[in-house]
């Protein structure tokens, strides 16, 4: 086999070159000289008939203008990911059946121990309409290089049953391919560590500038090889504000004032410390994975 051969393994153990897939779960294994270097779990599903729905909007149609604690209901696609009853990461509802999160949040874990919690604002005092779903499948597409820098840090969680979409809960919009979002304002939401080292119970939001990758290469302390085109660099070069531990897997939003809706530009991935000068946060660039996301969520109801 060549260094870049790819195999598919179905749930029954069949191994072969990539065929046309019917419905079902498969694992893609990429090899180097016959040795596996990383795998991608993929799920090809049948499409459904779905009613029309909107993405990236919320009940009050308002835009966060600043502050620390997010408004209740402002981000109805935001989810809290629990493992063995312990909060570990954030995530984002992208349609009625799938949540997008970071691969490092779920890799190597037992899916039966996950719970995805919706309409959460205060993790200590859940809202009356909060609910949860189990996870049926975990699909990852990640790779860690020899220097332990994560790339392809995205994962899809298939929910045990669809989420009822409506005014209370809506998915976020997926981004168009090709937009770098450089120069735009990003909004990160999560329950991650604050500047004083404490972990908040209430959902927090922070606004950060999105940098061009070339700017991240030349004007920060990162080495050029650490940042590739599947990543977004966002934050202040002198520190100030950043995502932090506990925010992993959550969304980096961009607000479109013309369409009055949010899109998910990135997924909180990694960085050196939190709000450290010279080290902005690093996010998985979602529009580099649109084909993979669309391929693996064909059984979902998509909103536009």
TrEMBL record:
Query: Could you give a single Gene Ontology term from the biological process aspect?
Result: proteolysis
Q: Which family does it belong to?
A: Belongs to the peptidase S1 family. CLIP subfamily.
Q: Which SMART domains match?
A: Tryp_SPc
Q: Which PROSITE patterns match?
A: TRYPSIN_DOM (PS50240), TRYPSIN_HIS (PS00134), TRYPSIN_SER (PS00135)
Domain Peptidase S1 stretches:
64-298
Q: Recite the UniProt keywords alphabetically.
A: Disulfide bond, Hydrolase, Membrane, Protease, Serine protease, Transmembrane, Transmembrane helix
The name this protein carries in UniProt is Oviductin
InterPro entries cross-referenced by the UniProt entry = Peptidase_S1_PA, Peptidase_S1_PA_chymotrypsin, Peptidase_S1A, Trypsin_dom, TRYPSIN_HIS, TRYPSIN_SER
Q: What GO molecular function annotations does the UniProt record carry, in alphabetical order?
A: serine-type endopeptidase activity
Please list the coiled coil stretches: none
Q: Mind telling me which residue stretches traverse the membrane in this protein?
A: 25-43
A Pfam family in this protein? Trypsin
The family database entries (Gene3D superfamilies) matched by this protein are listed as:
Trypsin-like serine proteases (2.40.10.10)
């Amino acid at each position: 086999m060549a260094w870049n051969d790819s195999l598919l393994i179905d749930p029954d153990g069949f191994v072969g070159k990539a065929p046309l897939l019917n419905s079902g779960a498969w694992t893609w294994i990429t090899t180097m000289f016959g040795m596996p270097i990383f795998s991608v779990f993929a799920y090809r599903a049948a499409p459904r008939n779905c009613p029309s729905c909107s993405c990236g909007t919320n009940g009050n149609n308002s835009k966060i203008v600043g502050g620390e604690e997010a408004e209740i209901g402002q981000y109805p696609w935001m989810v809290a990911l629990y493992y063995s009853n312990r909060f570990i990461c954030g995530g984002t509802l992208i349609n009625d059946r799938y949540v997008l999160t970071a691969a490092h949040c779920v890799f190597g874990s037992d899916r039966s121990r996950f719970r995805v919690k919706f309409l959460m604002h205060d993790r200590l005092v859940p809202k009356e309409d909060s609910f949860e779903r189990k996870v049926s499948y975990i699909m990852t597409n990640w790779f860690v290089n020899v220097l332990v820098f994560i790339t392809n840090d995205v994962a899809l969680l298939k929910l045990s049953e669809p989420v009822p979409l409506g005014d209370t809960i809506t998915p976020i919009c997926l981004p168009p391919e090709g937009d770098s979002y450089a120069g735009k304002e990003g909004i990160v939401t999560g329950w991650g560590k604050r500047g004083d080292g404490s972990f908040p119970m209430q959902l927090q939001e922070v606004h950060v500038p999105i940098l061009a990758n070339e700017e991240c290469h030349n004007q920060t302390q990162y080495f050029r090889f650490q940042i590739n085109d599947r990543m977004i660099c966002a934050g202040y070069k002198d520190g100030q504000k950043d995502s932090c531990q506990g925010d992993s897997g959550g969304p980096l939003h961009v607000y479109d004032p013309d369409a009055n809706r949010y899109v998910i530009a990135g997924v909180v991935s990694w960085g050196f410390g939190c709000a450290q000068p010279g080290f902005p946060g690093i996010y998985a660039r979602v529009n580099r994975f649109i084909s993979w996301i669309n391929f693996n969520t064909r059984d979902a109801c998509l909103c536009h």
